[in-house]
Design brief:
The protein is an alpha/beta fold. It contains six helices and 13 strands. The protein starts with a strand and ends in a 28-residue tail after the last helix.
Amino acid sequence: MTVGVLALQGSFNEHIAALRRLGVQGIEIRKAEQLLTVSSLIIPGGESTTMAKLAEYHNLFPALREFVKTGKPVWGTCAGLIFLADRAVGQKEGGQELVGGLDCTVHRNFFGSQIQSFEADISVPILTSKEGGPETYRGVFIRAPAVLDVGPDVEVLAHYPVPSNKVLYSSSTVQIQEEDALLETNVIVAVKQRNLLATAFHPELTADTRWHSYFMKMAKEMEQGASSSSGGTIVSVGETSVGTEQAKPDIPIYQ
Protein backbone atom coordinates (compact mmCIF):
# COMPACT_ATOMS: atom_id res chain seq x y z
CA MET A 1 0.00 0.00 0.00
CA THR A 2 1.32 3.43 -0.98
CA VAL A 3 0.23 6.53 0.89
CA GLY A 4 0.44 10.04 -0.52
CA VAL A 5 1.58 12.83 1.80
CA LEU A 6 0.82 16.39 0.71
CA ALA A 7 4.28 17.97 0.57
CA LEU A 8 3.68 21.67 0.04
CA GLN A 9 4.83 22.78 3.47
CA GLY A 10 4.91 21.48 7.05
CA SER A 11 5.75 18.13 8.62
CA PHE A 12 5.39 15.85 5.58
CA ASN A 13 8.84 14.30 6.07
CA GLU A 14 7.91 13.27 9.60
CA HIS A 15 4.76 11.53 8.35
CA ILE A 16 6.76 9.67 5.71
CA ALA A 17 9.25 8.56 8.37
CA ALA A 18 6.43 7.30 10.62
CA LEU A 19 4.94 5.34 7.72
CA ARG A 20 8.35 3.86 6.98
CA ARG A 21 8.55 2.55 10.54
CA LEU A 22 5.35 0.62 9.77
CA GLY A 23 6.80 -0.75 6.55
CA VAL A 24 4.57 1.49 4.41
CA GLN A 25 5.79 3.65 1.54
CA GLY A 26 4.90 7.33 1.62
CA ILE A 27 5.06 9.45 -1.54
CA GLU A 28 5.37 13.23 -1.59
CA ILE A 29 2.42 14.83 -3.39
CA ARG A 30 2.86 18.26 -5.00
CA LYS A 31 0.90 17.97 -8.25
CA ALA A 32 -2.69 17.04 -8.97
CA GLU A 33 -1.76 14.16 -11.29
CA GLN A 34 0.27 12.52 -8.52
CA LEU A 35 -2.94 11.89 -6.58
CA LEU A 36 -3.85 9.33 -9.23
CA THR A 37 -0.97 7.13 -8.07
CA VAL A 38 -2.04 6.73 -4.42
CA SER A 39 -5.02 5.13 -2.69
CA SER A 40 -4.92 7.25 0.49
CA LEU A 41 -3.61 10.66 1.53
CA ILE A 42 -2.22 12.45 4.58
CA ILE A 43 -2.43 16.24 4.83
CA PRO A 44 0.24 17.20 7.39
CA GLY A 45 0.51 19.91 9.96
CA GLY A 46 2.05 23.24 9.02
CA GLU A 47 0.95 26.82 8.42
CA SER A 48 -2.55 26.41 7.01
CA THR A 49 -2.69 29.78 5.22
CA THR A 50 0.64 29.15 3.49
CA MET A 51 -0.38 25.62 2.55
CA ALA A 52 -3.65 26.92 1.12
CA LYS A 53 -1.88 29.55 -0.98
CA LEU A 54 0.55 26.96 -2.35
CA ALA A 55 -2.28 24.53 -3.06
CA GLU A 56 -4.15 27.27 -4.91
CA TYR A 57 -1.01 28.23 -6.85
CA HIS A 58 -0.56 24.61 -7.98
CA ASN A 59 -4.31 24.26 -8.72
CA LEU A 60 -4.57 21.38 -6.26
CA PHE A 61 -7.90 22.15 -4.64
CA PRO A 62 -10.12 20.62 -7.36
CA ALA A 63 -8.08 17.41 -7.32
CA LEU A 64 -8.04 17.26 -3.50
CA ARG A 65 -11.81 17.74 -3.32
CA GLU A 66 -12.34 15.03 -5.91
CA PHE A 67 -10.03 12.70 -3.97
CA VAL A 68 -12.16 13.22 -0.85
CA LYS A 69 -15.44 12.81 -2.74
CA THR A 70 -14.38 9.49 -4.26
CA GLY A 71 -14.24 8.05 -0.74
CA LYS A 72 -10.51 7.45 -0.58
CA PRO A 73 -9.09 7.65 2.97
CA VAL A 74 -7.67 11.04 3.97
CA TRP A 75 -6.11 12.00 7.31
CA GLY A 76 -5.44 15.60 8.27
CA THR A 77 -3.23 16.58 11.20
CA CYS A 78 -3.38 20.11 12.65
CA ALA A 79 -3.40 22.27 9.49
CA GLY A 80 -4.70 19.21 7.66
CA LEU A 81 -7.70 19.20 10.00
CA ILE A 82 -8.43 22.80 8.98
CA PHE A 83 -8.18 21.84 5.30
CA LEU A 84 -10.71 19.02 5.67
CA ALA A 85 -13.29 20.99 7.67
CA ASP A 86 -16.42 22.27 5.96
CA ARG A 87 -16.35 25.41 8.13
CA ALA A 88 -13.56 27.38 9.80
CA VAL A 89 -13.44 30.40 12.11
CA GLY A 90 -10.55 32.41 13.52
CA GLN A 91 -8.96 32.77 10.09
CA LYS A 92 -6.78 35.62 8.90
CA GLU A 93 -8.38 38.51 7.04
CA GLY A 94 -9.69 37.27 3.73
CA GLY A 95 -9.94 33.70 4.99
CA GLN A 96 -8.52 30.71 3.17
CA GLU A 97 -9.76 28.07 0.79
CA LEU A 98 -10.78 24.70 2.27
CA VAL A 99 -10.96 21.21 0.81
CA GLY A 100 -13.99 20.32 2.96
CA GLY A 101 -15.78 17.03 3.34
CA LEU A 102 -15.66 16.82 7.12
CA ASP A 103 -18.94 18.04 8.64
CA CYS A 104 -17.51 20.17 11.43
CA THR A 105 -16.54 23.70 12.40
CA VAL A 106 -12.88 24.27 13.26
CA HIS A 107 -11.27 27.18 15.09
CA ARG A 108 -7.99 27.79 13.31
CA ASN A 109 -5.93 28.87 16.36
CA PHE A 110 -8.11 27.70 19.21
CA PHE A 111 -5.22 27.17 21.66
CA GLY A 112 -3.52 30.46 20.93
CA SER A 113 -0.26 31.53 19.33
CA GLN A 114 2.99 29.68 18.67
CA ILE A 115 4.36 30.39 22.16
CA GLN A 116 1.26 28.77 23.67
CA SER A 117 2.06 25.42 22.04
CA PHE A 118 2.09 22.51 24.48
CA GLU A 119 2.16 18.77 25.06
CA ALA A 120 -0.49 16.85 27.00
CA ASP A 121 -1.62 13.29 27.59
CA ILE A 122 -5.08 12.78 26.09
CA SER A 123 -7.44 9.88 26.63
CA VAL A 124 -7.78 7.77 23.47
CA PRO A 125 -10.04 4.80 24.30
CA ILE A 126 -10.85 4.01 20.66
CA LEU A 127 -7.18 4.08 19.64
CA THR A 128 -6.25 1.87 22.58
CA SER A 129 -8.98 -0.64 21.78
CA LYS A 130 -7.83 -0.86 18.16
CA GLU A 131 -4.06 -0.58 18.54
CA GLY A 132 -3.31 -1.51 22.16
CA GLY A 133 -0.65 0.33 24.13
CA PRO A 134 -1.18 3.01 26.80
CA GLU A 135 -4.66 4.40 27.52
CA THR A 136 -3.39 7.91 26.78
CA TYR A 137 -1.56 9.46 23.85
CA ARG A 138 1.02 12.22 24.12
CA GLY A 139 -0.52 14.94 22.00
CA VAL A 140 1.77 17.62 20.57
CA PHE A 141 -0.28 20.80 20.03
CA ILE A 142 1.54 23.47 18.02
CA ARG A 143 -0.51 26.60 17.38
CA ALA A 144 -3.26 24.07 17.29
CA PRO A 145 -6.84 24.19 16.03
CA ALA A 146 -9.82 22.53 17.71
CA VAL A 147 -13.17 21.21 16.54
CA LEU A 148 -16.03 23.37 17.83
CA ASP A 149 -19.01 21.36 16.60
CA VAL A 150 -19.68 18.26 14.52
CA GLY A 151 -22.47 16.92 12.35
CA PRO A 152 -24.47 13.76 13.15
CA ASP A 153 -22.24 11.50 11.04
CA VAL A 154 -19.00 12.55 12.70
CA GLU A 155 -17.49 10.25 15.34
CA VAL A 156 -15.58 12.02 18.12
CA LEU A 157 -12.40 10.09 18.95
CA ALA A 158 -10.75 12.32 21.57
CA HIS A 159 -11.37 15.35 23.80
CA TYR A 160 -9.02 17.59 25.73
CA PRO A 161 -10.22 19.49 28.85
CA VAL A 162 -9.46 23.21 28.80
CA PRO A 163 -10.22 25.79 31.53
CA SER A 164 -13.20 27.77 30.29
CA ASN A 165 -11.51 31.10 30.92
CA LYS A 166 -8.92 30.15 28.28
CA VAL A 167 -11.42 29.20 25.62
CA LEU A 168 -11.35 31.62 22.68
CA TYR A 169 -14.66 30.56 21.19
CA SER A 170 -17.72 28.65 22.36
CA SER A 171 -20.67 26.98 20.68
CA SER A 172 -23.77 25.10 21.74
CA THR A 173 -22.04 21.75 21.21
CA VAL A 174 -18.93 22.46 23.29
CA GLN A 175 -19.45 20.66 26.58
CA ILE A 176 -18.96 22.72 29.76
CA GLN A 177 -19.04 21.05 33.15
CA GLU A 178 -18.38 22.21 36.70
CA GLU A 179 -15.91 20.23 38.79
CA ASP A 180 -14.55 21.42 42.11
CA ALA A 181 -15.83 24.92 41.40
CA LEU A 182 -13.73 25.10 38.21
CA LEU A 183 -15.32 25.33 34.79
CA GLU A 184 -13.79 23.12 32.12
CA THR A 185 -14.57 22.76 28.45
CA ASN A 186 -14.13 19.39 26.77
CA VAL A 187 -12.69 20.41 23.43
CA ILE A 188 -12.81 17.96 20.50
CA VAL A 189 -9.33 17.18 19.16
CA ALA A 190 -9.82 14.04 17.03
CA VAL A 191 -12.70 13.00 14.75
CA LYS A 192 -13.60 10.50 12.05
CA GLN A 193 -16.28 10.63 9.36
CA ARG A 194 -16.46 7.78 6.87
CA ASN A 195 -13.21 8.05 4.86
CA LEU A 196 -11.90 11.10 6.74
CA LEU A 197 -9.75 11.14 9.89
CA ALA A 198 -8.54 14.35 11.55
CA THR A 199 -6.44 15.20 14.61
CA ALA A 200 -5.72 18.65 16.03
CA PHE A 201 -2.33 17.45 17.29
CA HIS A 202 0.81 16.08 15.57
CA PRO A 203 1.23 12.27 15.88
CA GLU A 204 4.06 12.50 13.35
CA LEU A 205 6.20 14.33 15.93
CA THR A 206 6.22 11.42 18.39
CA ALA A 207 7.66 7.90 18.29
CA ASP A 208 4.19 6.46 18.92
CA THR A 209 2.89 5.28 15.53
CA ARG A 210 -0.53 4.09 16.70
CA TRP A 211 -2.42 6.82 14.87
CA HIS A 212 -0.58 5.99 11.64
CA SER A 213 -1.34 2.31 12.14
CA TYR A 214 -4.98 3.16 12.86
CA PHE A 215 -5.20 5.13 9.61
CA MET A 216 -3.58 2.34 7.60
CA LYS A 217 -6.01 -0.24 8.98
CA MET A 218 -8.90 2.15 8.36
CA ALA A 219 -7.73 2.45 4.73
CA LYS A 220 -7.33 -1.32 4.43
CA GLU A 221 -10.83 -1.93 5.81
CA MET A 222 -12.29 0.54 3.31
CA GLU A 223 -10.37 -1.09 0.46
CA GLN A 224 -11.59 -4.52 1.50
CA GLY A 225 -15.15 -3.25 1.85
CA ALA A 226 -15.01 -1.80 -1.65
CA SER A 227 -13.70 -5.01 -3.20
CA SER A 228 -15.86 -7.31 -1.00
CA SER A 229 -13.16 -9.93 -1.32
CA SER A 230 -11.71 -10.26 2.16
CA GLY A 231 -14.68 -11.08 4.38
CA GLY A 232 -13.83 -8.21 6.71
CA THR A 233 -10.43 -9.52 7.75
CA ILE A 234 -7.97 -6.81 8.69
CA VAL A 235 -4.51 -7.30 7.23
CA SER A 236 -1.57 -6.22 9.36
CA VAL A 237 0.49 -3.34 8.03
CA GLY A 238 3.54 -4.13 10.11
CA GLU A 239 4.79 -3.81 13.64
CA THR A 240 3.37 -0.85 15.53
CA SER A 241 6.13 0.95 17.36
CA VAL A 242 4.75 2.02 20.73
CA GLY A 243 7.84 2.41 22.86
CA THR A 244 7.77 3.50 26.44
CA GLU A 245 9.97 6.44 25.50
CA GLN A 246 8.45 8.82 22.98
CA ALA A 247 9.99 11.76 21.18
CA LYS A 248 8.85 14.90 23.01
CA PRO A 249 9.56 18.32 21.50
CA ASP A 250 10.81 20.84 24.01
CA ILE A 251 7.59 22.81 24.45
CA PRO A 252 5.61 23.62 27.61
CA ILE A 253 2.69 21.69 29.03
CA TYR A 254 -0.60 23.56 28.59
CA GLN A 255 -2.16 24.34 31.98
